[in-house]
Amino acid sequence: MKLKILWVGKSRDTWVKDAIDEYAGRIRRYMPLDLIDIRDEKGAEAEEMRRRECERLEKHISPAASLILLDERGEQLDSPGLAAFVGKQRDCGTGELIFVIGGAYGFSEEFRRRGKLLALSKMTFTHQMVRVFLLEQVYRAFTILNNEPYHH
Description:
It contains 5 helices and 5 strands; from the N terminus they run βαβαβαβαβα. By secondary structure, the protein is an alpha/beta fold.
């Protein structure tokens, strides 16, 4: 299985970039990982911004991929639950698992229907922090799946 994470906008802060690099390196010990920045939309109405950003995201999603959209209305899993989900995807032959972090206004309704919705928390976080939190949780999932002591 190959893992891909798409996010709208650039990672700006040095500490965010450093954390992304750290966790991406850890994840790559378990499987191939692609991180892709999608250009964010500026100067349009919210719905138009969502539509344009989702069109850009679509270009990086293969039809056979398993798609997970980070969305505040999504299902909340604990870390073992995420590990079980990732392990099931891996074990049932999913070729590509894609996590997507949308832009400031989220996803269009049409795009939202394409994948499984997952919420990291009921709290609101900056898009920059969500990138780090997602990568850490994916890394944690792999350590759980491999019975490693990272997760207590």
